Amino acid sequence: MARYVSEEPGFQAFVEAVERFPVLSREDELALATRWRRDGERPAADALVQSHLRSVVKLALKYRGYGIYLSDLVAEGNLGLLEAVERFEPERGLRFFTYARHWVRAFMLAHVLKHWSIVDLGTTALQSKMFFRLQAEHARLMATLGESDETIEGKLADKFQTSREQVRTSLQRLGRRDASLDAPVLDGSITFLDTLQDTHEDQESQIAAAQLSSVVRAAVEEIWPTLDCRERLIVDNRLLPADGDSKTLASLGRQLGITRERVRQLEAGVKSKLRTVLDRMLAPTAAEDVETVRAAAA
Question: Partners of 185 in the beta sheet?
Fold first, then answer.
């Protein structure tokens, strides 16, 4: 069995170890299972589990084609083996692994379904059946009916007792594995992550914007007592709207019962007051900073 695990050198020692555990006869299995179930002898349960670890490895080999490490599949299968030994009823006279195979396989398949994609494929019996049989059945129908046959999705939906849409979605997911953003592209000098565009401002821009906003608001607070109700409404709806969506001059004019031009004149007056305060507040700073803040108030 060593030739199957060459890609995982650290796993080699485990495989060689489980090969050394003795193969038990039916009578030995039943005796150990009885001692565990009746008397709670942990060493008896351990011996029963150890004798079938090699069978877990062999079963895991059947599912290694889904991009999951063999060692991970075996680890999950071993959990299924432990579950089986807790539930096994020796009085039924079955060989232990005949019973345990169901649990070992169930744990492995659940692991494959969970890690195949970050998109949840589900782990119900129907979803599991579709995952492991849909591609093969799809390939068979295409070979029989032709790739362009429009009845294939319908036949698959009938066979798996689901909808055509679910069949189409499942085939798309099975045909595309998730790709790591760290995977190299082109000549290997960049990754997928490097090609993604960041739509957010960088930290420097965010800090500058926050500082600018703080200065402007401080200036507004200073002139606020000098503003009448109309000018305050203009500040709240035009210069510093809470939701970021400024009202038009016309809409404010209708609200105040004045013309659009009059609203513009009032706004120009508020901005003039702001510029006077900002010039005083930013006098010690660099000239370009003053111009930046003044432009925001313009």
Answer: 190
Task: Dig out the tokens for 20 from the structure.
Answer: 């050394």
Average pLDDT on 85-90 reads: 92
The CA distances from residue 268 to 144, 231, 235, 248, 296, in Å, are: 77, 10, 11, 14, 13
- In this prediction, residue 9 carries a pLDDT of 66
CATH architecture label of 203-297: Orthogonal Bundle (1.10)
As a whole number of angstroms, the longest Cα–Cα distance in the chain is: 102
Among the residue ranges 11-25, 28-42, 172-186, 231-245, the one predicted with the least confidence is 172-186
pLDDT of 103-139, one tens digit each?
A: 998 888 878 777 655 444 444 555 555 655 666 677 7
Here the tokens at position 57 are 């490895």
Specify the pTM: 0.44
Residue spans per domain, the chain:
2-116, 125-175, 203-297
Q: Which phi and psi angles does 290 have, rounded to 5°?
A: -60, -45
Helices (H) and strands (E) in the chain, counts: 15, 2
Asked if 66 and 21 count as a contact pair (C-beta separation under 8 A), the reply is no
Rounded CA-CA distance 266/262 in Å is 6
Mean pLDDT is lowest, of 38-42, 177-181, 191-195, 225-229, for 177-181
CA atoms of 185 and 267, how far apart (whole Å): 53
Percentages helix, strand, coil for the chain, rounded to the nearest 5?
70, 0, 25
Is the domain covering 2-116 a CATH 1.20.120.1810 domain?
A: yes
Give the number of other CB atoms < 10 A from CB of residue 199.
Answer: 5
Backbone phi, then psi, for 250, in 5-degree steps?
A: -65, -45
Q: Are 16 and 82 in contact (CB under 8 A)?
A: no
Average pLDDT over residues 70-94: 91
